[in-house]
Amino acid sequence: xxxTELVSQQRAYFKTNATRDINFRIKQLHGLREVLRENxxxxxxxxxxxxxxxxxxxxTTELSLVYGEIAHSIRxxxxxxxxxxxxxxxxxxxEWSYLLPEPYGVTYIAGAWNYPYQLTLLPLxxxxxxxxxxxxxxxxxxxxxSRAMAALINDHFPSHYLHxxxxxxxxxxxxxxxxxxxxxxTGGSVIGKIVYEAAAKHLTPVTLELGGxxxxxILSDCDINIAxxxxxxxxxxxxxxxxxxxxxxxxxxxxxxxxxxxxxxxLMAHFSPSSIxxxxxxxxxxxxxxxxxxxxxxxxIFFGGVTDKEQLLISPTILHNVTFDDEIMTEEIFGPLLPxxxxxxxxxxxxxxRTYDKPLSLYVFGKKSAVTDSLxxxxxxxxxxxxxxxxxxxxxxxxxxxVGASGIGSYHGEYGFKTFSHDKxxxxxxxxxxxxxxxxxxxxEWKLKLLRWFIEH
Length: 457
Description:
Elements: H1 3-14, H2 22-38, H3 40-51, H4 55-81, E1 84-86, E2 95-103, E3 106-110, H5 118-130, E4 133-137, H6 143-156, E5 162-164, H7 169-176, E6 182-186, H8 189-200, E7 206-209, E8 215-218, H9 224-236, E9 248-252, H10 256-270, H11 286-295, E10 301-303, E11 307-308, E12 313-314, E13 317-319, E14 337-343, H12 346-353, E15 361-365, H13 370-378, E16 383-386, E17 407-408, H14 413-419, E18 421-429, H15 445-456
Parallel strand pairs: 3-4, 3-6, 4-5, 6-7, 8-9, 8-15, 9-14, 13-14, 15-16
Antiparallel strand pairs: 1-2, 2-18, 7-17, 10-13, 11-12
Helix pairs in contact: 2-4, 2-5, 3-4, 3-6, 4-5, 4-14, 5-14, 9-10
């Protein structure tokens, strides 16, 4: 079956209104969860083959998040999908106004390789919950997980409802030639622009989940031990291949050495460079491995710097004495390299951050104060945390999404449902009174005054 036929079949099925039924959607979510749970070992084997990702890491950062999203959607779908009453104005009295969510229709979801299950299946859960059909293309850079998802979904769901298409850039190009009702893309900004351009030809709404250079500002009054622990986990989980990971640290000069010492102590205890092959993820491919290796200035390595090309492993690496002029500060790192830049003047830091594209995330470590509040207020970013990194991603009550170059739109929980839904605006008006005399000639000054009062209040 070619892509055009697949889209046509899904559009025809959507028009039957079968997917609009709430019970149908809940049944499909139960079915997806059952398929994933029954084939969990297949999924674990596939991701290890692609990324050397451990069972522990896959369950905690991939599958459990998907199961949680499904459970949340099943529980709250009746509330999300019902009519939402909104206020009225005097001009339209007597009336009852509400928003009625409806599915877009045929959707296209393009997943990413760094969290191949989470970043492909979370938007699929939202698409199902909202009542859409979906064509899904996992990333070809993680071929085993792509193959596993294709086998599980295509074997258990009809293609006119859900279908996984595998392939690289050529297949992606073919898919983007089609007219969809919604496109959801996760990946880099270069491909994101191609997706956005293709969608514009059909005026298709798009959600782009991209990335950027996420700063972490470490203030002098922070808890150094807690900061070090949460920075290490957020930065080096998934071998740094996380869109919301801190990309670089901006550390007040008064605590730089103490923070560096604590980071080193913790890394030695849990991620010794001599054992990077144990429970540590690989870089996705040789091209990315070589790119990251080129970003490591040997003279600035404070800790780590061990590489294994055969296994595509790079140990957690901290670089110090880094400046904004260094090559590593010219692009998103997306790997286990953490540059540390010291500062004395916070205002200069704020202005420097503003010279970059708006990041997906911002992290600040320090005691809550007017200073921390001003940082969150003044800087533009998708989401972030005070005294933590990454974990806001796991709160389904917060949207995940970027701004500007880091993305368009958001998802997770109800935000995902809304991303894949259109709110129809509906007004039901009473018939027991009609202000006809104000709408028709003769137009009198007293009528105008009365209408102005109705309109402006």
